[in-house]
Amino acid sequence: PQRIYYLSLEFYMGRTLQNTMVNLGLQNACDEAIYQLGLDLEELEEIEEDAGLGNGGLGRLAACFLDSMATLGLAAYGYGIRYEFGIFNQKIVDGWQVEEADDWLRYGNPWEKARPEYMLPVHFYGRVDHTPEGVKWVDTQVVLAMPYDTPVPGYKNNTVNTMRLWSAKAPNDFNLQEFNVGDYIEAVLDRNLAENISRVLYPNDNFFEGKELRLKQEYFVVAATLQDIIRRFKSSKFGCRDPVRTCFETFPDKVAIQLNDTHPALSIPELMRILVDVEKVDWDKAWEITKRTCAYTNHTVLPEALERWPVSMFEKLLPRHLEIIYALNQMHLDRVAALYPGDVDRLRRMSVIEEGDCKRINMAHLCVIGSHAVNGVARIHSDIVKNSVFKDFYELEPEKFQNKTNGITPRRWLLLCNPGLADVIAEKIGEGFITDLSQLKKLLDFVNNETFIRDVAKVKQENKLKFAAYLEEQYKVKINPSSMFDVQVKRIHEYKRQLLNCLHAITLYNRIRSDPSKSFVPRTIMIGGKAAPGYHMAKMIIKLITSIGEVVNNDPYVGDRLKVIFLENYRVSLAEKVIPAADLSQQISTAGTEASGTGNMKFMVNGALTIGTMDGANVEMAEEAGEENLFIFGLRVEDVEALDRQGYNAREYYERLPELRQAVDQISSGFFSPRDPGCFRDVVNMLMNHDRFKVFADYEAYIQCQGQVDQLFMDPREWTKKVIQNIACSGKFSSDRTIVEYAREIWGVEPSATKIPPPNLPRD
User: Fold this and answer.
1) Which residues are reported to carry the modification N6-(pyridoxal phosphate)lysine (predicted)?
2) Which residue among 3, 15, 400, 491 is the active-site one?
3) What is the pLDDT of residues 475-503, one digit of tens each?
4) From the DSSP assignment, how many helices (H) and strands (E) are in the chain?
């Protein structure tokens, strides 16, 4: 079959035990067996460390895709790096984030199997020799890539795929080969330098940090993986049987490489290098093979997230790849110049090489010219990709550009994390929805069914009680389980606008304070997420949230009508607990900034209602469920663009809206930081003078919309009917649907729902 290779620098897998039991259909059997041994399975599950080899959405998407590809019976492999330290553990100390190393392998990892027999060399540095026999990359430093395989089971279909993660190993002659009188001890200690490549995950979400070690990581995973792909291609039964395989014509029919963002973009020049320099394929033929093999998924339109590597760094680290990129760019620009004679500005805009004080390689441009398909991850994002980010490229090759709206695996994100809800659904419509989530549509027949309404509400209440107990046990915080659980969990970033949530919390607090006898809908506002260690504003936002909590949660006038809780160390295993307990899901990024979002989908399928902007997949969620069944507010993309042209003036909103002014004044005066009144001056200064994400512009609509949320929450039956409507319309957001679209429209393969026979039965 055609093999699919999903290349990603991140796989945010979480825990594996329960997922494996669910997919093998063994959960009840194991539960019973463990119980008979006098143990509690849930207690055992809590011992497992999360595999936190990702930052957020992009890494978790890769994990969901692996589950769906296995469940759909695709011959797919996930390839990445086995980081010794994943995303840091977050501690909150005095209201500030403090990072701790995530030593997740401390007690070993039972799910992985080292495969030293497939160890491969990866080359760095050196120089390029142009000889009559061809091009040689010589005098390189070698690092070995040791593969570790983790099984990826499909859902009850007896398919098990592989995730192969590479670990860096120094060769035994490392630093000893130099004709040095040098220090043997020093040389052995220097092995660490090579092995540092797979030491730690870079903790940036939607932000590019041009560090040499990160470029090494990117090339390391690409070089090892491509050798593996080509070894497997050559040893397969198909194609010509030359002792030395030189016919690569069939390569794109047998291999599909999906690039998860630009991080593995070096696959393009590396495949060219192997085909041209090593396998002696003609340049133009090699380029055709490369383009037909690779496809690129874009994950963000934020300019600060786009990878732009200094040419000088490439020159030193990957000299041959730099030559290849120059040649590819020349070929590309010649084509553009022929089609648009005299349009020098277009050539500048479309070049892979950016000229300037520091020449840079634009990895996104490299991906677009080197791929046969480019996709965004939600319809609105794919439109922005075509009409602004890659507008010139879209005009050149419109057929290249596609949309593939993200999805989530219903195995982990419904069956595993919310068995109560899965049960009441299965009671009504059977179990088919687990592998065909569109079947949730059948629940529309039960929107007015009193027993079903009661059952869905009961499951939610049980989940809330369980989560409240967990918070009390773990963090010693007591919350009111009958309050509205208002949740915003995601990485902390200005564009995600946790600050807008803060302003609502302060406004709510001020309203209660100014009329304590009035009746208010009780809320527990929970905000969780990690800030990149070097992202000052994000760390200030966490401090602000914890500071608001200090004041609000200790004010006797407020009582249990309002609580503000910061959820420490948000990660996959915590998401599995909080999402099923949420009533309200906050998806409030500035329109046009969140490419898709996937947390939004998890909340929807788990029976929370969404308050959100028309951004990312929220647009399609509103389309599926009906806009009246979500709480949609705020500027649309067109409005944001209009405001940019006109000029966004924060002070205008500050002057016009008394509740906003009061909240901002409280933050800046030190009301929430009495021991350090100037604590939040940077935050206020940003909001007032250079807020790229227009928090104030959406404040009024947001507060008003939150009022509608309160109104509906006071009518539990109507609320639950909207919940059922949402669940029933969430089927589109299964990663199974997403992967079927990738398979048919990008990879050219048909997924199969057929169960292969189990290993204990003879095969046909």
Assistant:
1) 602
2) 491
3) 888 999 999 999 999 999 999 999 999 99
4) 31, 25
Active site residue 490: yes
**Closest by CA position to 258, among listed 1, 76, 389:** 76
At the topology level, CATH places domain 419-730 in Rossmann fold (3.40.50)
Asked if 57 contacts 206 with a C-beta cutoff of 8 angstroms, the reply is no
- Token pair in block for residue 252: 């794109």
Q: Are 721 and 450 in contact (CB under 8 A)?
A: no
The mean pLDDT of 1-29, rounded to a whole number, is 97
Residue among 257, 367, 350 nearest 307 (CA): 367
Domain boundaries, the chain: 3-407+741-746, 419-730
Q: What is the pLDDT of residue 755?
A: 83
Using alpha carbons only, what angle is made at residue 490 by residues 27 and 718, rounded to the nearest 5 degrees?
75
Pairing of the two strands 134-138 and 127-131: antiparallel
**Angle formed at CA 23 by CA 740 and CA 571, multiple of 5 degrees:** 85
Per-residue pLDDT of 36-50, as tens digits, reads: 999 999 999 999 999
Instruction: Considering only residues 759 and 324, tell me which one the structure prediction assigns the higher pLDDT.
Output: 324
Domains 3-407+741-746 and 419-730 agree in fold: yes
602 catalytically annotated? yes
- 263, 372, 404, 496: the active-site residue: 496
The verdict on whether 136 is a catalytic residue reads no
Q: Helix, strand or coil for residue 148?
A: strand
Rounded CA separation 288/113 (Å): 36
Task: Give the domain 3-407+741-746 fold.
Answer: Rossmann fold (3.40.50)
Query: What is the helix (H) or strand (E) element at residue 322, kind and residue range?
Result: helix 319-339
**Is 738 in contact with 596 (CB distance < 8 Å)?**
no
Residue that the structure tokens 């409507």 belong to:
725
Between CA 350 and CA 397 the distance in angstroms is 13
What is the model's pLDDT at position 704? 98
Q: Does the pLDDT of residue 698 top 80, yes or no? A: yes
Name the band, by pLDDT with cuts 50, 70 and 90, for residue 764: low
The band of 135, judged by pLDDT with boundaries at 50, 70 and 90, is very high
User: Of the candidates 385, 413, 360, which has an alpha carbon nearest to the alpha carbon of residue 736?
Assistant: 413
From the candidates 460, 490, 530, 732, give the one annotated as an active-site residue. Answer: 490
Summarised one tens digit per residue, pLDDT across range 136-167 is: 999 999 999 999 999 999 999 999 999 999 99
Mean pLDDT of 321-333: 98
Secondary structure string (H, E, C) spanning 685-696: HHHHHCCCCCCH
Half-sphere exposure of 170 (CA within 13 A, CB side): 17
- Taking the C-alpha atoms of residue 86 and residue 471, their distance in angstroms, rounded to an integer, is 24
Looking at residue 583, what DSSP letter applies?
S
Residue 613 bears catalytic tag? no
542 or 475, higher pLDDT: 542
Which residue is associated with the tokens 């030395």? 244
Confidence of residue 246 (pLDDT cuts 50, 70, 90): low
At residue 238, the pLDDT reads: 56
Element of type H or E holding 403: strand 401-403
Question: How far is the C-alpha of 74 from the C-alpha of 205, rounded, in Å?
Answer: 29
Q: Could you tell me the pLDDT band of residue 637, with boundaries at 50, 70 and 90?
A: very high
- Closest to 297 measured CA to CA, from 365, 370, 217, 377: 377
Q: Find, among 711, 510, 484, 658, the residue nearest to 583 by Cα.
A: 484
Active-site annotation holder among 159, 598, 613, 738: 598
